[in-house]
Amino acid sequence: MTSPPILTTNRTTTSTSTTTPMPTTSTTTRPPALNCSNGGKEFNGVCVCPDEWTGKTCTEENFCKATMLNGFKFQDTPNGWFAYSEEKCLVGTSGAGNSKASTRCLLRNGSLSFETPRKFKCDLTLADIQQNITSGADLETLASSAQILTSKPENLQSENVTTAAQIANMLLLSPNATEGVRVSAIATVSQLLNTNVKSDTTKNNATQELTLTLDTLSVNLSSSSNISQVVQPNLVVQSAQVQAADSQGVQFTSIQGASGSFVANRIQLNTNVSKVTVENGFIADALVYVQFPPGVRGHQKSSNISLGFVLYQNDRFFPSMLYKKQRATIRVLSASVGGQDRSVVPQRVEMLFRPRFPNSTFLHDFSCVFWDYTLMDWSTSGCSKGNASDGVLRCFCNHTTNFAALWSYREDYEYAEALGVLSIVGLSVSILALVITIVHHIKENFCQKSRERQTNLNSKMSLLCIYTSLLAFILTFLSGVQNSSRQSNNGVEPSTKNTIPDSDQHVEPDQGSCTAVAALLHYFLLATFLWNSVYGTQLVLLVRSMRRSLPSHWTPLSVGIGWGVPAVFMAITLGVTYRVDNPLRYRQEEFCWLAALDHNKDFSFGKPMFWAFLLPMGLILIYNIILLILTSLTTCRVDPKLTSTNRSSLTKKFLVSFSLAILLGLSWTLGYFVLVTSGQAHLVFSILFCVCTTTQGFQIFILFTARTRSFRTAVLTSVQYVSSVSTPLNSAKYYLWKNWNSSRTSETYKDILNRETSM
């Protein structure tokens, strides 16, 4: 149910006394906690109540209870709001899905009850209503029908919003408009503030004209009808008539509620105050105080001043090109002064705004602005800003118009904790193992000249590139994944300059180091897996064709794929997403890796983590799995030693496949299970992923270096050499017979080792 407006009598108070001033930077004793009922929440010693309840502890009813009325069922509705029937227009009519009737909850004779429902003709459209207004048709019916047709703002298109805005404007300007027509028209405007359609010139012109009409209506509302206040969930129109000689200033206040919607009992008007005041037991969400100069009170005793206030829930009718926002909700508060004496000009206008910051954010800066209809945008001319204490933004202007406080926030980042012991140990062992592997691999395959080694140069080079890129990735990860250029999460004082922020989210300019780490990690990890694929492809081609070497063009092709493709991919990702003034489109702030989450902390498929890493990595892993299957099947088929069913042969089969799976990086598939699981399964996969990936370098060393005869021989030789080293001592030789040291022949034996070549 969409719940629109409210019609009440004038809640104006006249008093020369003032109440408790709005707290500024001073500290006060926090009152004892209250026991708030019916969903109310205690905040700063005050119960913030839901819309349906009021009172100090939210125990007083402020709604009409659900009921059947004239054959239509209506749900619980706060005082003054509109309710729409559960009965809908049938499919096939132009109003299909819309309610068949509407009613309003009103306070009469001390009790709340629904008024007589107004039925809706299901064959009416907004275009029909717009045409019928000019023909002098029943405005009450047309206004109610337009209200029902816009009761589901999420379904409205841009042209619907434009037409509805034009209808509301025509109804409000009509000399034949009754109180009911005006209330329904303002209800329609309130619902239009909930739409989410793209701006266009026609729509903007219609809504701009509507805001001007609302300003005029607010000044003349009480003089042209029996009402002075119309309150809706998203819009408040307040009118006041005061004697200039009897008033120091007029204050309009919107009190905070749990939902953020406007309700009549949370709108206050004080027609004689000397400064900004807020009654005890209330928290102001938005406030405007208009102060008159002393000369008006002393010399204009017969002057009547008409004041009008319009409070918008958001700035949807004020589309700005200067200030871009995604998450901020900017309330717009209009103050207008009229009357017989046009020389009455306010001395000062003071505003207070209490913004609702998104979760895990805090205020960075704000500016005090007004809407300039000439520029069709916000302007700071004639306005200045005060402090921003207690979550309240203070603004001052020397004129009346549509005001707002444009603010920017900063994320309260939860930076990643230091790497755990398990990760550090695993990565450190992998680094040492890879260094030994690389040294031994170069010595055995590139430093010694032999025909066999030259023949297998392609596979040897691919292995070296795999070892090198994996080592580079681990070193970069271990030394730089923690963001060394962390932003301070302590709140900072807004600047004193009243400058319009570019957007609602402030992002510190990039320092460079974290972005460089993220780019290098992206590059080296993609390079590792592409070299895995290159090596696997070589292996399949050699095994299946029974050839000893590949064509000469294979070497430059493999280098281009292994090192060139990741570089292109990294460059494209940087070019598309990275900006110096907003690096978080490319990387994360909590740690140096590709951006993955949206502002709601949900995984986003539009972030580079998905399309620049997870997607290509997934395709590479699928390709590597296919290579593993082909290699295993081919090896077992062509190698007679692996076709046997004895235990030794089965062990060799498993070891061949397992070694190749480790080299091809198939343990990284566990990361995808980490992303799609939750609970206990998520924990298990996370541990397995951490152990398998951090120790990948060590696994490669065991399977491809430590098991080879050449490495074991080198280690054995080194051990024998170290153990044979002794401290030289003085010694003498004595011969027991003549010619002992004459030349003799000896017989030596060569230990011929069958060298194994790694796959």
Taking the alpha carbons of the first and last residues, their distance comes to 69 Å
Main-sheet strand order equals 1-15-16-20-21-27-23-24
Query: Pairing-aware structural class of the strands and helices?
Result: alpha+beta
Tally of structural domains: 2
Shape: elongated
Number of discrete helical segments: 17
For the sheet with most strands, the description reads: 8 strands, antiparallel
The count of strands amounts to 27
State the gist of this model:
With 759 residues, this protein is an alpha+beta fold. The protein is built from 17 helices and 27 strands.
Written account of the structure:
The protein is of the alpha+beta class. The strands form 7 sheets. An 8-stranded antiparallel beta sheet has the order 1-15-16-20-21-27-23-24, covered by helices on one side. Strand 12 (101-108) and strand 13 form a beta hairpin. Helix 9 (457-480) packs antiparallel against helix 10. It is found in: Membrane. The chain crosses the membrane at residues 418-440, 461-481, 520-542, 554-578, 610-633, 654-675, 681-704. Residues 1-32, 484-508 are annotated as: Disordered. It comes from Austrofundulus limnaeus.
